Amino acid sequence: MTLNAKKWIAPAILATLFLSLPAAAEGASAVVVGGQQMAPSKDIVDNAVKSADHTTLVAAVKAAGLVDTLKGPGPFTVFAPTNQAFAALPAGTVETLLMPENKAALTKILTYHVVAGKLDFGAISSAIAAGGGKAVVKTVAGGSLTATMNGPHNIVVTDEKGNQAHVTTYDVYQSNGVIHVVDKVLLPR
């Protein structure tokens, strides 16, 4: 006995799509970062520790004593450099910054990646449009970051030294803000 493929393939595909719609809708607000699903109900720190791509950032946040701050109510916008971004710094930089005697310098660099408020892609891109092609935001460290568009859905963040980081993952919503993954470490003046 042979089966007529036209009779069973289309209904099987439709059934699969129909059954997967509720699951897709439930996970629509969750984003996968570093191989792990980020939970919008958790805070910045609780999500960051799950990401395999942010182990250096998490170690730095702990060394700087910023865990309690980033677990606080916020809201915060964090431009989160990946392990590769930290690895691209000159040799020995990360190890030096993690030393207790360099806590102030580490704290300044990390808080330079944090903006008060919840600035998702829509808010940043609207500010860029309103600013004639760029938006300047004040960081918690007191410095400035400049955001520009590089295409319809690609934000580039430039630090005070002129270094550029591309946002590689947008709108990772947290209970106390939003994270944007970036491919470079941003440095204050």
Task: Describe what this molecule looks like in 3D.
The protein is of the alpha+beta class and 189 residues long. The protein has a single domain (30-182), classed as FAS1 domain, CATH 2.30.180.10. It has helices at residues 5-26, 44-48, 55-64, 67-71, 83-87, 93-97, 103-111, 121-130; strands at residues 31-33, 36-38, 76-81, 114-116, 134-138, 144-149, 155-158, 164-174, 177-182. The protein has a seven-stranded mixed beta sheet with strand order 4-3-9-8-7-6-5. Strands 1-2 form a two-stranded antiparallel sheet. Strand 5 and strand 6 form a beta hairpin. Residues 1-28 have low confidence and may be disordered.
Distance N to C terminus: 76 Å
> What would you say the CATH architecture is?
Roll
- Helix and strand string, N-terminal first? HEEHHHEHHHEHEEEEE
The name of the CATH topology is: FAS1 domain
Write out the CATH superfamily name: FAS1 domain
User: What ranges have pLDDT less than 50 throughout 5 or more consecutive residues?
Assistant: 1-28
Q: Which class do the helix and strand fractions yield?
A: alpha+beta
The CATH C-level name is Mainly Beta
List keywords for this structure.
189 residues; alpha+beta; FAS1 domain; seven-stranded mixed sheet; two-stranded antiparallel sheet; 9 strands; 38% helix; disordered N terminus
Topology of this protein?
Elements lengths: L4 H22 L4 E3 L2 E3 L5 H5 L6 H10 L2 H5 L4 E6 L1 H5 L5 H5 L5 H9 L2 E3 L4 H10 L3 E5 L5 E6 L5 E4 L5 E11 L2 E6 L7
Parallel strand pairs: 3-9
Antiparallel strand pairs: 1-2, 3-4, 5-6, 6-7, 7-8, 8-9
Helix pairs in contact: 3-7
